[in-house]
Design a protein that fits this description.
This protein is α/β, with parallel strands linked by helices. The chain has 17 helices and 15 strands. Pfam families: Glycos_transf_1.
Length: about 450
């Protein structure tokens, strides 16, 4: 196993920056590779007006390969029957535009994200009828080496379609975002624990290479791959880029406020902030304000009870729900700091977005957040409410020395970008295709009795 950002490899920081189309893409022996990109997650998220972090990642991958020549990428999705089918490139382009319109500005008044829904439903209906299966077989039989990219975890627990894709000659490369359901099952719905274990088992069995978003995720992943008894394939540690941030001049709260981004769920530790603000209110303080941006999640009865029933929080805490990206950026740009008291993360996109805007960050002292934030944020114990109180009251002051010190450190922080991410991905894809089709780069060709089946499997069959 060799990390692709290890010493001896080209420095990620030295890679050119610019538009996705500026990159040459993965190449083997001078021939561009054929990427098969699964966009099933984007087809399934069209009912929401605000994307998850994983959906943002799949969008970035789709945009990147949509900017490449058509012969270099086939977009696919998984049908309800399990098989994969190729999707029309023009419809993918229309779907991305429709989704980004809603994500950026919110749905048109009274209509909701209907355009994206219509496009996605049409493609899903075609998959049910078998559309795209013959086209995918044709692409897999072509002269270019193929790599199947699955970057959203969706369908990663279903082994047979992935096995079929590999038997048809495609190398398989998933992106693993985190292992939270396995390391912290208390923060996950029970069915997700078994499902994520199946995802990691599929990765251990079939992955020719793996993309991870942080060295922390890599270290935890290796611990969970090792018990499967197979050599670990090449891993690319490729920090995620961030969306374009363009704060506009819009009305903002006139009083000092802090912003907390993320789904209201136990893992994000909103309860610490709500109890802190309740204490401040009971002391007679009317500021600073706390703004919560994110949808309500599951299993968070205590935090939701505080939000819904505690009169002390009226006027000092405002729950905004999910908001369009444009409005989130405006609110973030005006905040005294981003508050991120999470218990565990695989990466930390909100931290990167805040720092990219020059906004200070108070966040949990976690390995993944230190990777993202470097020396810039102030890191706090997510269990230490007293420390959070001291930091927040300090940062609320117009002359806060701690806030001024962090803003000075921000000048030395460099934002992660998608161009650097894809440079690492391209090197990984080139490496995994050096092995003969159907063989993992570091795994000997040993019999697999538990995968017994026909010698040749239709890549579009479950």
């Amino acid at each position: 196993m060799r990390r692709l950002d290890a010493p001896g490899q080209p420095s990620l920081a030295s890679q050119p920056r610019g538009l996705f189309s500026d990159l040459t893409g993965a190449v083997k022996n001078g021939v561009p590779l054929h990427v098969i990109l699964d966009v099933s997650r984007l087809l399934s998220c069209v009912h929401r007006v605000s994307p998850s972090g994983i959906e943002r990642v799949e969008m970035a991958y789709a945009r990147r390969w949509l900017a490449r020549p058509e012969a270099e990428c086939t977009f696919v999705a998984q049908s309800l029957w399990g098989w994969f089918g190729a999707l029309p490139r023009a419809r993918i382009a229309a779907l991305l535009d429709a989704l980004e319109e809603v994500w950026d500005h919110g749905p048109p008044a009274g209509r909701g994200p209907r355009r994206a829904q219509r496009i996605a439903l049409a493609m899903l209906a075609g998959l049910l009828r078998g559309a795209g299966r013959a086209e995918l077989r044709r692409k897999l039989a072509g002269p270019r080496p193929s790599v199947f990219l699955l970057v959203s975890h969706r369908g990663l627990d279903r082994r047979a379609p992935i096995q079929a894709m590999r038997r048809a000659g495609a190398r398989f490369v998933p992106l693993i975002h985190d292992l939270i359901p396995l390391t912290h099952p208390e923060f996950t719905r029970l069915p997700q624990v078994g499902r994520h274990a199946a995802r990691i088992a599929t990765t251990a069995t079939f992955a020719d290479g793996i993309i991870v978003n942080s060295a922390f995720t890599e270290s935890v992943l290796i611990e969970h791959l090792a018990p499967h008894g197979r050599p670990i394939p090449p891993i690319a540690v490729a920090p995620l880029g961030i969306r374009p941030l363009r704060p506009a001049a819009a009305p903002l709260p006139t009083e000092p406020y802090f912003l907390c981004l993320g789904t209201v769920e136990p893992r994000k530790n909103h309860e610490l902030l709500l109890r802190l603000w309740r204490d401040l209110a009971l002391e007679g303080r009317t500021g600073p304000k706390l703004l919560l941006c994110g949808r309500r999640g599951w299993g968070n009865a205590q935090a939701l009870a505080l939000l819904d029933q505690d009169e002390a929080l009226r006027g000092v805490v405002q729950e905004l729900g999910p908001l369009p990206d444009g409005r989130v950026t405006e609110l973030l740009a005006g905040a005294r700091a981003l508050l991120f008291p999470t218990f565990v993360e695989g990466y930390g996109l909100p931290v990167a977005e805040a720092l990219a805007l020059g906004v200070p960050v108070l966040c949990s002292d976690l390995p993944a957040l230190r990777e993202v934030g470097g020396e810039a944020p102030d890191f706090l114990d997510p269990h230490d409410q007293a420390a959070w109180r001291r930091a927040i009251l300090d940062y609320a002051r117009p002359d806060s020395p701690a806030r001024a010190a962090q803003r000075a450190r921000l000048a030395r922080w460099q934002a992660p970008d998608w161009e650097t991410h894809f440079a690492a991905v391209d090197r990984l894809l080139a490496e995994v295709t050096e092995a003969p089709a159907g063989l993992r780069p570091t795994r000997p060709a040993l019999p697999e009795p538990h995968l017994a089946g026909p010698a040749s499997v239709d890549a579009t069959a479950a």
